[in-house]
Amino acid sequence: MSIIILGIESSCDDTSAAVIADGMLRSNIISGQDVHMKYGGVVPELASRAHQQNIVPVVDTALREAGISKQEISAIGFTRGPGLMGSLLVGTSFAKGFALAMNIPMLEINHLQAHILVHFITEPGVDKSHPSFPFICLLVSGGHTQLVLVKDHLSMEILGQTIDDAAGEAFDKCARVMGLPYPGGPWIDRHAREGNPDAFKFSRPSAGGLNYSFSGLKTSFLYFLRDAEKSDPGFLKRNLSDLCASLQQAITDVLMANLLKVSENTGIKEIALAGGVAANSGLRNAVTEAAKKHNWKAFIPKPAFTTDNAAMIAINAYYKYLEKDFAPQDTVPEARLRFSP
Fold first, then answer.
1. Which residues are CB-neighbours of 57 under 8 A, at least 6 positions away?
2. At 45, which CATH number?
3. Is residue 75 located within the same domain as residue 212?
4. What is the DSSP annotation of 69-115?
5. Residues 156 and 70 both lie in one domain
6. What are the backbone angles phi and psi of residue 44, rounded to the nearest 5°?
7. pLDDT at res. 47
């Protein structure tokens, strides 16, 4: 009998539902929320309201695209955290109601661990290899930057992480300073492709060990731009591409320094990227080049699997289902859910 998992993702501003049958992706539907663009960031109350409006049609579309009826679902996986509490409540409440109505088990999923497991999604007609255990994953997003030792599908250990701002946060805040639209990371990437990464030098802070720090880099960029604009009001407009390229290079250098260090320390040469910033072309190219130089086997997800999506929730739930690791009906979401082993 097939194991068919319905996955629900609602940690931030994307409402997503996906269906995975026996580990094979059948559908992955995502509904974004453009309303936040004019505010320069996600507004939690608006996000939770939009989730309430979107979740039923998104799930319905995912089931229809997968060619699966709700009666065939074996279990439902949902994001328990971390994320915005109001958004998480919508997904958790839907999962509870669906599980009760269909008399099926629930599987609670850690959003960050699910990002890593995108590397085990199998798609019809796509021949793709998966990482072998153990491997190292650089998980980089708007809220988190972590180096993770992945021992098994359900066993992971954080080896290093940011002590202040995440890399994605640094991208977005620097983009805002330059007047770029939200979310700023993709806009910086776009302009960086036309710029000189060596045009300007920004600090590359170290937090010691395998930890990261991006607060100092963000601050040095802000002060540099403020002083340059004060003495030359047209500086930003004339140098936008070079500024973006130089900033992107600085952030990439910081990320890669510890990734190289952890590979050398552990001897592990299977290296993966995950999270929203894994879509950044500068970081993807840096990992690709490092793989050639250091004989790594690199795993870089396609851009559609770097952002928040329910396919990653469903595949994580699939492996938890195999272990019968079900969640009780009194499970509650946690905005600051810890990265548990």
1. 31
2. 3.30.420.40
3. no
4. -GGG--EEEEEEESS-HHHHHHHHHHHHHHHHHHT--EEEEEHHHHH
5. no
6. -55, -45
7. 79
Residues 298 and 311 in one domain: no
Q: For position 207, what pLDDT does the model report?
A: 86
Q: What is the rounded CA–CA span in Å between residue 14 and residue 261? A: 34
20: Cβ contacts below 8 Å, ≥ 6 apart? 4, 5, 7, 26, 121, 311, 314, 315, 317, 318
Q: Are residues 203 and 315 in the same domain?
A: no
* SS3 of 198-254: CCCCCCCCCCCCCCECCHHHHHHHHHHHHHHHHHCCCHHHHHHHHHHHHHHHHHHHH
With a CB cutoff of 8 Å and minimum separation 6, the contacts of 176 are 40, 182, 184
**Is the same domain home to 143 and 255?**
yes
pLDDT of 153: 97
Supply the Cα-derived Rg of the chain in whole angstroms: 20
Closest CA to 14 of 330, 278, 305, 315: 305
Q: What is the pLDDT of residues 55-104, one digit of tens each?
A: 999 999 999 999 999 999 999 999 999 999 999 999 999 999 999 999 99
Same domain, 216 and 161: yes
How many residues make up the chain in this entry?
341
Q: How many CB atoms lie within 10 A of CB 83?
A: 27
Ranges of the chain with pLDDT below 70 = 33-42, 340-341
Whole-angstrom CA distances from 271 to 86, 128, 210, 224, 266 are: 34, 15, 15, 34, 12
10 Å CB burial of residue 328 (0-12, 13-18, 19+) is exposed
Identity of the residue numbered 165: D
Indicate the angle between helix axes 184-192 and 235-266, nearest 10 degrees. Answer: 100
State whether 215 and 279 are in the same domain.
yes
Record the pTM: 0.94
Give me the phi and psi of 195, to 5 degrees please.
Answer: -110, 175
Query: Does 164 fall in a domain?
Result: yes
Residue span of the structural domain in which 196 resides: 135-302
Total structural domains within the chain: 2
What letter does residue 146 receive in the DSSP assignment?
Answer: E
